């Protein structure tokens, strides 16, 4: 096989099933919408892994990011990190990660995303995203209806604590923060049972939930990292009306970023 | 910026606006659906360029494919080539490409996708896709309503000739062929005005048109290249239930493809 040349940089979405589902049909989910608005600008890569927590995710991210100067691979212009929904599982769930360890793992992921301190390369823009609030009423009913029935594996206040931790790490590390937890909680009028307007199963976002998340993400990018807003990233290759039609080759020299 | 490591291979979609629009909201378009089913398997890259014909596209593809052994860049497992809708414009449109030259350009793109004859690398799987039929009734009305009014720039039988040429090149070169032209024409009962069920403006596919295209594409992959069907490509990193929970690091060794 030939290789895919790095004609444009990468917008990497790293997280659990809520990230993996970013291109789900009939959802207008955030990955799909990013792919659309960043077309001809950045390649939006799905690095979402259903069921994963940060304890497992850190091994994945280590392999997804190449800290060496390998010229053939595309550069990561943006790295979004979205965990917490599974880490916040309560014991004895195997997905449970203690809060201090969760914080350590998120910091470790940020440091994997950053260029080495002695490098003169441009920084990758890092965005932390908090998990959505849990509707334990729906989640409990869902788990109890399974065969065999399962016990509730998440608690409302515990997921909130993990969301708060993401916000605090973002502040401490000086990276952008997309507060999905608060935006969804506000949209539901701070009423747990009303969360179902934004969740499919008490845990995962539905189309309306992803819509809120996407708007918040784009708003944060516009405010904190305007240079990576899609409107500010030029096309990798020219618009067809800008091509020199009589001598097209001249329009395609040195277009690679 | 750090680089994106090649943890999985690439499914490259190369074409014009009908490819670029593959992640359009409210469409369940083919790029989005491929992104979804190939999640954790292949990265689906949008290399669609609105308005482009093969004459301009060949310069782009030359830059998107790295024929050298650059280890950092991901390998192209699948290359889909979808042109003809703009090449088939009639004179004096600047998008017009004469049919013999269109055929030459498509063959050139295939040869760019192939590994060098003296290489022992695996082949990139190449798929040619024919352009959809044109509804000249709607297209004419659309162009005449513009300010200033424009003349009809495509003819039904000419686009059909370009679609036939794609089929013939696929056969001659021994690569897979997705016959969008015929599938949409059949679905419309071979009735030009009925094409509007599958097109938004006489030229671009709508949700129903993309649905037919996607089903045909997946069917062709299943028949001709079953090894690249998403069901036959394992996850790049393990499903969370397969992770060794007490010693997770052991689950992430040598997972890179």
TrEMBL record, chains A, B:
Residues 13-211 form the SGNH hydrolase-type esterase domain. Keywords: Hydrolase. It comes from the Eukaryota. InterPro entries: Iah1-like (IPR045136), SGNH_hydro (IPR013830), SGNH_hydro_sf (IPR036514). One of its GO terms (molecular function) is hydrolase activity. Gene3D superfamilies: SGNH hydrolase. This is SGNH hydrolase-type esterase domain-containing protein. The lineage of its organism: Eukaryota, Fungi, Dikarya, Basidiomycota, Agaricomycotina.
């Amino acid at each position: 096989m030939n290789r895919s040349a790095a004609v444009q940089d990468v917008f990497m979405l790293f997280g659990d099933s809520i990230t993996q589902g970013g291109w789900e049909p009939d959802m207008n989910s955030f990955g799909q919408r990013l792919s659309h608005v960043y077309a001809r600008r950045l390649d939006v890569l799905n690095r979402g892994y259903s069921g994963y927590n940060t304890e497992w995710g850190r091994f994945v991210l280590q392999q997804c990011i190449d800290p060496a100067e390998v010229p053939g691979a595309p550069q990561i212009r943006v790295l979004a990190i979205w965990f917490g929904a599974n880490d916040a599982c309560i014991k004895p769930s195997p997905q449970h990660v203690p809060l201090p360890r969760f914080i350590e793992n998120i910091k470790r992921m940020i440091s994997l995303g950053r260029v080495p301190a002695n490098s003169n390369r441009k920084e990758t823009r890092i965005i932390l995203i908090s998990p959505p609030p849990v509707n334990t009423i729906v989640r409990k009913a869902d788990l109890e209806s399974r065969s065999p029935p399962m016990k509730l594996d998440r608690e409302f206040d515990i997921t909130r604590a993990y969301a708060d931790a993401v916000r605090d790490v973002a502040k401490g590390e000086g990276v952008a923060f997309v507060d999905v937890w608060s935006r969804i909680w506000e949209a539901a009028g701070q009423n747990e049972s009303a969360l179902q307007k934004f969740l499919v199963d008490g845990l995962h976002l539905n189309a309306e939930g992803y819509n809120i998340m996407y708007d918040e993400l784009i708003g944060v990018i516009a405010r904190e990292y305007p240079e990576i807003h899609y409107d500010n990233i030029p096309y990798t290759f020219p618009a067809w009306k800008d091509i020199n039609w009589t001598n097209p080759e001249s329009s395609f020299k040195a277009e690679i970023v």
